[in-house]
Amino acid sequence: MEKIVYIIPGYGETHLSRKAYGKLAKAFESRGIMPIHVKINWHARKPRRFRDYVVQFLKQYKNRKNEEAYVLGFSYGATIAFLSEPKTNPSTLILCSLSPYFSEDLEHFKPSWLKWFRKNFTESDYVFNKLAPKIKSKTFLFVGDKEGPEALRRAKDAKRKIKGSKLTIIKKTKHNIGQKEYLSELNKFISGL
Given this model, what pLDDT does residue 124 score? Predict the structure, then answer.
């Protein structure tokens, strides 16, 4: 059975602009899992909508028979992976620093962040509590302990609400998938696949 992983970068990033995605791709390749770097046009239109990003990902997702699919997303990429899961149904979902932009999260935002979000995004109507029970994939959550209270709250809530999910809180780690601690933890996870 062929194994494949879709790697969805964080907001404004590509696998070319961020070396960490290439390092993760090599780690997956070493386990016999073929990486596909998902290309998201982050600035396609404004105000932006998560559903537009989901459509971009779904156009690149090929669900073939005799294939075991993994989806790894970081930050906004994790949100795209999460929102896409009911349509892609991968065997494994890897949510790194899942963005706290669901309707339940907005009340915890600092006013400056909320203002930025509402200026740049039209959607805040995704209700995590309604979406989480629909996740059927084996799910692994990663978050840095220095990412801030919103990100930690979202990760812990996701752990409670996504059935059978596992959460790893990475010590001494900010919102940066390229940070050595983050990459080290992901490499350890990948080596166990």
Answer: 60
Residue with tokens 């999260």: 105
> Model confidence over 20-53: pLDDT tens digits?
999 999 999 999 999 999 999 988 766 678 888 9
Q: Which of 29, 20, 3 is nearest to 176 (CA)?
A: 20
Domains of the chain (ranges; CATH) run: 2-191 (3.40.50.1820)
Using DSSP's 3-state secondary structure scheme, residue 34 falls into strand
pLDDT of residue 66: 78
Find out whether 174 and 97 touch, Cβ atoms under 8 Å. Answer: no
DSSP string spanning 66-79? Answer: TEEEEEEEETHHHH
Q: Which amino acid is at 149?
A: P
Tokens of 165: 């999910």
Q: What is the DSSP letter of 148?
A: -
189 closest CA partner among 22, 21, 19, 24? 24
